[in-house]
Every structure is written in C-alpha cells, then in structure tokens.
Amino acid sequence: MKPRKLTIKGLNSFIEEQVIDFKRLTEKGLFGIFGPTGSGKSTILDAMTIALYGNIAREAKEFINTNCDSLSVSYEFEILYSGQRKVYCAERVITRDKSGGYKSKHVNLLEYQESGKVVIAEGSREVKESIENILGLTAEDFTRSVVLPQGKFNEFLKLTGKDRRNMLERLFGLERFGRKLGAKIREKRRAVNDQLNIVMGRAKTYEEQGISEDKYKELKESFNILTNRAKEIKKEKENLDKQYELDKNLWELQQELIEYENKYKEQIKLEPEIEARRIKLKASENAWKVKPFLEAVKDIEEKIATGKLEIEKLNKQLQFSSDLLLKKETEYKSILQQREKELPRLIEKETNLAAALERLNKLKDIKAEREVLLKQYNEKKALLNEVNKKSEAVTNKLTKIEDEKVAAEKRLEELVVDPSYRDDINKLVVLQDEASKLKASIRDLKERQIKRNVLIAKLEKELREVQQLKEEKFGEIAVTEEKLTKVIELPPPDNSVLFEKKDAIFKLEKLIGDLTAYKERKEEITGELGEIDKKLEELKNNHEELTSQHKELREKLELVEKEIEEAQKSHIAYRLAEELKKGEACPVCGSTHHPSPALQDSAVLSEKIQLKEELSKKEKELEDKIRKVQVDRELLQKNRQYTAAFLEPLEGQFKGLDLEKVIEEKAEAEKEFQALTKTIEEWNKKKEELEKRLSLEKENKVSIEQKEIILAEKLKAEKAAYAETNIDIENNQKKLEPVMEEATSLKKLYKIEDVSLVQKELKEKEKEGGDLQQKLKLINEEINNLNKQKEELVKGKSLLEIDIAKILESGKEKKAVIDRETEYIKQLSEGKEVSKHLEEVRLQKTRLIEEESKLKDKLDKIKEENRSLNDSLIKATTTSNSLIQQLGQQKERLSGQLKLYKFNSSEEVEKSILPEELMKAEDLQITAFDNNKNNLKANIDRISGRIGENRIKEEEWQQLIVRRAEANKAFENNIKERAAAAHRIKEMEVNLAEYKGLLKEKRELDHISSNIEDIAKLIEGNKFVEFVALNQLKYICIEASKRLKDITSGRYALEIDSAGNFIMRDDFNGGSRRATGTLSGGETFLTSLCLALALSSQIQLKGSAPLEFFFLDEGFGTLDNDLLDTVMDSLERLYSDRLSVGIISHVEEIKSRVPIRLLVEPAQHGIRGSKIKIELS
Questions:
Q1: Nearest Cα to 1066, choosing from 1093, 1058, 1039, 1080?
Q2: 1055 has which bridge partners?
Q3: Which whole-number Å values give the CA distances from 1064 to 12, 72, 1126, 1129, in the listed order?
Q4: I need a labelling partner for 68 at 20 to 30 A (CA). Which of 579, 786, 941, 1060 fits?
C-alpha cells in the first residue's frame, strides 16, 4: 500500500480541514514529520487508522476535538496487485450522539475506475472487512507494520528467553499456539470425556435391559411358534364362520317371528281403550271450533269491567292534579318576583370583584418583576467591579509584551541574509545534487544497456526455437486430422439400432418373467382345482348316502303314520263301545244288540306316536345335513368356477409360447447387443482419443503462437528500449556539462570549498530567524488579543453601566404602579378579601337562578300530567259504551255455534277442550296403533311364509355362538401376541443396532481421547509456542542481518546462538562474534533498527498487498551528532522505488538531513487548530 492523500478535520488538535499530499511527500523516498511535542504529529497516523479501520491504536476514548461536533477523515491510497496499481479512498465521518458517545454517520470505501469513483463498500463493518481483504492485515497488524514503535528497538535486541518469547507471542498473535491452544485442548478433552461418559452410560442402560443377539434369536423363535398356531386357529375359525352363517338367518327369522306375535297380542288388548280415546278426540275437535266465540264473549265482558275501574281511578287522579297545580302556580309567582329584585344587584357586585381579582393577579406579577430587577442590579454591580480589575491587569501585561517585541525585532534585523546570496547557495546545493543524480543515472543506464544486450540475444534465440517448434506442430496436426477423417468416414451402426436391440431384450426379459409366473400360477391353480374336485366328490357321495338314508327313514315314517291312523280308529270304536248301553241302538250299525264291542289297546298307540316323533326328529336332522352338504357343494362349485376363471385368460395369452426357446432367444439377443455395444464403444473411444489429441495439439499450437507473439513483442520492446536508453545517456551527458560549469562558477564567485558548511550556517541563521519570526508572530497575536480583550472590557463596562441605569429607572416605575393598583382594588372589593367575597356573591346568584328554574320545571310537569289525565278519562268513557253494544251481538253468535255442534252449554264446551299438543299426540298415537297393528300382521305372515316348518333350538344356537366367540377370541389373542412379539423384535433390532453403534462410537471416542492426551503432552509448558517463536525469530534475524550488512557495507551480520540470543558477527575482523551487550551506541541503534524493520516485514507477510512505506517514531533527541549522521545515512540507504521512509520527530537537527518535510504547527487555544505545510530543504 502506498499513501496518496490524507484529509483530516475535527480529530484531536486538528479543527479546520487539513490536506496532506503524500504523493509529493514521498517522491524523494525519505521524508520527515516535524513539530513540537503535542502538535499533532501522531494524530496523522491516527487519522489513517480511523479512516481504514474505525479506531486508533492509542486506545483514546476522546478523539473528537472539543470545539467540534464531528470529525471527518479521508484517506486515498494505491495498491500494487498483480503488476497493476489500483487506487482506493476510505471516507469516514464520526459524530457525537446525545449521550456523549460516538457513532459513525458516513462510512464509504471507493475504488477509482475508468468510469469514475465507485462505492464498493458501505457501513463500518463492511468497509472494515473490505480493507482487511484488500490489505490482508487487521488493524493491529497495520499499526505494527506502519509505525516502528518508539523505544522498542533496544528493548527487542536486549530481551532474552521468556521475555522475548512473550513479545513475539504478542506481536505475531502466537497466543493461539500457547494458552489459547491449551484452553481449546482442555475444552475438547472435557467435551470428549463428557461424550464418552454419555455413550458409556447409554450402553450400560442397554446392557441392563438385556439387549443381546441371543435374546433376539429367542424372540424370533417365539414369533415363529405363534405364526404356526395362527394357521390352525384360522382354519377352525373359518369352519365355525360357515356354520354360523348357515344358522344365523334361520335363528334371526325365528326370533323376529316370536317378537312380532307377542307385539300383535299386546295390540289386540289395547283396542277398547283406543276406541274410547278416538271418540274423546272427536268431541275436542268440535269444542275447538266453538271456543273462539266463547272466548270473544268472555273477553268483551272482562274489558267492560276493567274499563269501569279505570274511569273511577282517572276521576280521582284528575282532582288531585288540579289541586296541586293551583298550589305550585302561587309558589312560582313569589320566587319570580324575588329573582327580578336581587339578580341585577348580585351581577354588578360579581363584575366589580372579578375586575379586582384580575388587577390583583397583575399586581403580583409586577412585584415579582421588581424582585428580578433587584437581583439583576446586584449581579451587574458585581460584574462591573470585576471588569475594572481585569482591565487594569490587561494594561500591565500589554506594556511588558511590547518591550519583548522591540528586542526581538532588533535581533531579527541582525540575522537578515542577502536573498541573492542565499538563493545562489541553495542553487549551488541543488546543482551539486543534480550533478550527482545525473552521474548516477548515466552509470545506471550503461549497466542496463549491458544487461539489455544479453536479454536481446536470449530473446532472439528463444524466438527462433519457438518458430521451429510451431512448424513441427503444424505437421503433427495435419497427421492427426487425416486419421480422424478416416475414422469418421467409417462409422458403426446408429444408436437407434442399439436402442432397438436393448428394447427387444427388455421385452424378452419381461416375457420370460411373465411365462415363469404363468407356469407357477398354472401349477398352483391346477392343484387348487384338484383339491376342490376331490372335496366335491366326497360331498357328492355323502349327499347320495344321506339321500338314501332319508328315503328309508321317510318310508318307515309313512308306515308308522298308517299304523297310528289305524290305532286311532280303534281308539274311536272303543270310545263308542264304552258309551253303548244295553237295548240302545248303535250309532254306527243301528243294532240294539252288542255281541262283540271293540277293545282298547292304548299302549300300542303310545309306542307308535313316540316312534313317529323319534323318526321325525331323525328326518329333520338328515334334512339339515343334506341342506348343509348342498350349501357346501354350491360354495365349492362357485369357488371352482372362480379359480378356473383365472386360468382361461392366461392360457389364451401364452398359447404356443415355450419358456426354454424364449430364454435362448434372449441370450442370443444379448450377445448381439454386447458385440454391437463393444463396436460402438471402440469407435467412440478411438474418435474421442483423436479429437482430444487434435484439440490438445491445436491448443499447444495456439500456446506456441502466443509465445511467439509475446517473444516478438518483448524483443521489439527491448530493442526500442535499448535505442531510447542510448538517447537518455546522451541527453544526461548534455545536461551534466552546463550543470558542472555553473556549479564551478558559483564556487569561484563566493570562494566556497564545502558548500554544506555554508548551507549549515545559513540554516542555523534561518532557523534562529524563523524562531524569532514565530516568536514575533506569537507576540503580535498576543498583543492583538490583549488589545481586543481591553476593547471588549471597556465595551463591557459601558454596557454594564447602561444596564444598571435602566434597571434603576424600571424599578421606580414599577413601585408607582404597585401603589396605584393597591388603592383601586381596595375600592372595588369594599375592603374585603377579594377571592372569598367573589365566591360568596357567585354562590348567592347561582342558588337564586337554580331555585327559580327547578320550580318552573315542576309547574310545567304538573300541567302536562293534568292535561294527559283529562284526555285519558274521555277516551275510557267512549270505549266502555262501545264494548256494551259488542257484547250483545257476540252472545247471539255463540248460541248458534252450540246448537250446530250439539253442545248443551258453554261449560260442556270447556270440559271437552283438550290442549292442541295433547290432541296431536292422541291423533298420532291412534294412527300409530292402527299402522302398527297392520304392520305386525303383515310381518307375521311374511316371516311364517319364509320359515315354513324349519326351526332351530336355542341351546344349539347358543353353543354355536360360544364356540365361534372362543375361536374369534383365540384368533384375536394370537394376533395381539404376534403383534407384541413383532414389536419386541423390532424394538430389539433398533436397540441392538443402537447398542452396536454406541460400542463403535465408544471405540472412536477412546481413540480421540488418546490423541488429545498425546497432543496435550506435546504443548505442555508452552513448548509449542517456544518452537514457533524461535522459528519466527530465525526468519527475523536472517532479514535483519541482510539489512545490517547492506547498511554497514557488508561489515556486520546478525546471528542466533543455541540459546536463542542475538550474536553480532564482524566480517571485517575475521568474522569474530560478540554479544550484543558489548555494542557501542551507534552499533546498537543500527542493529535495533534492522531488527525492527525485519519485524515489520514479517508482520506484512500476513498481508495480501505490500505496504510500501513506514513511519519511524524514535527518540532521536538522545543521539549525538555523529550517531545521528550514521542513522540518517542508514535511513537514506533504505530508500528504494517501492519503499518510502517517514521520520516522526521534534528534533530540529534532523530537518536539514530530510529532503522533504511535513511541518505540524500546534493548535492555538481559542483561535485555530493544528496546521500542516510541506517544506523542501
């Protein structure tokens, strides 16, 4: 980084805006910043730091000038980056806030581009980050690199061991390798140990829960047992479900029929009651038709009776209201007369007292003003006395300073030098400097010409080699292009052929999969159909056997029924024979003789009936079995049809296809595809290789052509530069001759041998004269200031005397006003206290007005009530007469309605009326009864027709339900047990995987913990910091030794011994080595300076852009003249094209050794801030 311009305003002692042109200041390499202590020299460096980073290195909290509300800095600098220079400008404005703190108001970073200034960053944080990116240095690094700190050179040289290590640790931020690294390791060790404890605790938890591979295998075996048991339970459940579905419908219909029959019997019992309710409902409907007429008569009678009571009440209220109205009118007239008499008097009194109160308030203000005037009089009087004292002191001081001025002016006249003489001496110095520079320039140009000749020969050789190489590349490209053309002319089959082959293989693979699946499915279906056919055959045989048994049983049953019929006939004959009496005719044959009456055989009949019942029961059981077999057969037949239906479309789809042939066809297609793919890949590979080679050869050719162009341009430029340098040498020689002649002429004229001594003498006079001029300037300024003070004091005294006279006059006027107003207020208030008396008068007035208003409101209200009562009485009388006429008409209508609906009296109508809700409920219940009865009869007929003679006993049905419920429960329990077992297996799998992961994590953490312990031992006791610090010290020592040898013309070199201490080597004295403690003052300073410069360079290495200047802030006042000359010679040798050196000092002797000086004039209190100016030596 190289500074260009710095603008400062409002920072520390700088009040007005000051601009420092660093381009001019650094043009001769070495420059100085001079000024008295406290003048603001270091503030220039603070301004740079604030502009770039927003803070200053000296950690000052109050850096805005007390006479300013804000500070503004602008720092323009350039960066050498990749051989090009970029220009940036950092601007910053900082203001004070209300609380006294500082805040950034305007912060910008600009880049100078061809189009103009461009803002590349805004805001404190963004600008700071951009600066750090551009320079590669933090604020701390920058201040260490730019300023070589005062008093630190000798300290760094003499420090040893731990102290030097600590200093290096601070400068290079090595804390991160020492204490900070140790803290990080301890923190990491603690974190790893904590994590290890957590992992071990979690692993132990799993161990306590019994998580293991053996436990996992046991759970899997238990689950397999439950799965096998599930198959058995499921088969049993399916059989019971079939049986349940067969009997469920019959049982439900049977239960439904019983329920309907019971309900129908209940309905029959309710029929008489429903009929009575039907008649009562009809009477209520008629009564509701008559009710409106009956209610109308009652309503009119009630209104007539109410009207009579209302008329009597209104008459009484009207009489009372009339009496009250007469009384209130009398009271109102009385209060009205009193109001007209008293109110004007009270208003007049109130007006007078209000005026008196207003004047009283004004009087208080006037008295307060008079007190203020008295205070002002005392203050002005005291100020006048003080002004008289100051005026006397200023006069005395002015006399003393004017005497000093006369003495200084006399000495200044003695120091005056002839301007032409001074100009010639200065001209002679410039001519000698110019001659030295021209000689050095000619010598340098000739050396360059020698080097350029060698470079031109080298470039010509390289150009010929490149041109030859280019021709060779043209031949290689032609060969490669020919090969590529031949390959392209013989391409392999298109990719579409490859895609068709691939598609055919996919189709064959799918067909093989389908055929395999079809074969497996066909075998499965055929097996299922065989099982079904086997079961159908068994059911068929079973059905035929049961049908045969049923036929035999039916024949037996028919035979028994005939025998029972014969037995019953015999029983009837026996009953007739038992009733026959001797001599009476037989009802069958008519005979009166009964020789052979029929005999009873009841035992045989009973046996026959019992046998019939047993046979009927067996028949029913056989019919149920036959029915069940038929249902099973129908289900199996449907199942067989459903299963066979899957096979028919598959057979049609894969008819005529052989799986083995399709597999062979696929293998052949894959071979063809692979061969084709290989051919295409080989062709593409060969083509890509040739294209790649061609591209690479063309790139090489372009690269060679570019190199040829570059070399040709370089050669051209070097030849042109060679010619220009010859011209420069001739021009410099031409310039040198007149310069030498003029310098010799001036030396002869003034008989000067050593112009530097003469110049030194002139500068001493000039310095003394400058000091006297500065002193006279300060004296004149002080005289002007004292005269101004004197004038201001006289002016102030006059103003104070005028103010005192005005105050006295105003006080007298206010006293007269106070006396006059006091007398007038007394007259208005009749000698009473004004506020209290005014309040009493206003209270009397308000009370009188309110009393009259309240009485008037009451009177108006009573009048309104009297009028309203009279209107109500007239209206009530008219309404009563009209109602009597309506009553007669309504009674005639009621009589007609009673006759129409056959009611004897109004009482009978009222008794017959039922509530509407009750009537609706009765009607709904009667209708519901009729509908329910009809529905029950229809349902009984329907269910009887469906059931026929079939029945199932409750005991059989309940047994089936219990068995089925037990089977379902067993099935559900098995599902739950399997789900629980599966959950435990899943949980065990998750836990087992996590347990294994924890064991793995523990092994990894153990390894990390071991590594951390090893690292902790390595950095123990700051060993690592010492190692890094020693390496940094070696680099610094090497850099410092190079600079020291350069400054001392190769005499001195700096080394480090085994203990890390500095050793001085004297190469002019046989390379003898001695400790740095034995060095002289000058040797110590030079060595310390080189170390400081090396230290700054090391810090700058961290940056991305070189810092092309630095400031040397060192106490030169402690050096003697000889040592000072040595130091200045050394600093002048440091200057180069890319390094400018700035000296910050208040020592006047150094000024003459610095070609360009920046002078900082200290601030003058109350007049101006620090000022700067550039001065040439």
A1: 1080
A2: 1063
A3: 43, 48, 18, 21
A4: 786
Distances (CA, A) of 130 to 134, 137, 353, 1058: 6, 11, 80, 43
| C-beta separation of 805 from 381 below 8 A | no
- Note the pLDDT tens digit of each residue in 402-430: 888 888 778 777 776 676 776 677 777 77
Each residue's pLDDT tens digit, 5-30: 999 999 888 989 999 999 888 888 88
CA nearest to 414, candidates 756, 772, 779, 775: 772
Say whether 1161 sits in a helix, a strand or coil: strand
Question: What tokens were used for 1024?
Answer: 């690592």
- Common-topology check for domains 1-136+1104-1177 and 150-178+1021-1102: yes
* The pTM of the whole model exceeds 0.70: no
Spatial strand order of the sheet with 1156-1161 comes to 147-148, 1109-1112, 1140-1145, 30-34, 1156-1161, 1171-1176
- For residue 495, give both structure tokens: 């990719």
Provide CB contacts within 8 A for 1144, sequence distance 6+.
32, 33, 41, 42, 45, 1111, 1112, 1113
Classify domain 1-136+1104-1177 at the CATH topology level. Rossmann fold (3.40.50)
Q: Which pLDDT band holds residue 1069 (cuts at 50, 70, 90)?
A: confident
Positive/negative CA dihedral, 750, 752, 758, 759: positive
Which contacts of 74-78 are long-range, i.e. CB under 8 A and separated by 24 or more positions? 74/5, 74/6, 74/7, 75/3, 75/5, 75/6, 75/7, 75/47, 75/48, 75/51, 76/3, 76/4, 76/5, 76/6, 77/1, 77/2, 77/3, 77/4, 78/1, 78/2, 78/4
Coil vs helix vs strand at 312: helix
Closest CA to 248 of 952, 970, 942, 950: 952
d(Cα 540, Cα 534) in Å, to the nearest integer? Answer: 10
* Residue whose tokens read 């739950």: 976
- The DSSP secondary structure of 512-581, one letter per residue, reads HHHHHHHHHHHHHHHHHHHHHHHHHHHHHHHHHHHHHHHHHHHHHHHHHHHHHHHHHHHHHHHHHHHH--
The CATH class for the domain spanning 150-178+1021-1102 reads alpha beta
Domains of the chain, residue spans? 1-136+1104-1177, 150-178+1021-1102, 185-269+919-1018, 271-414+784-850, 522-659
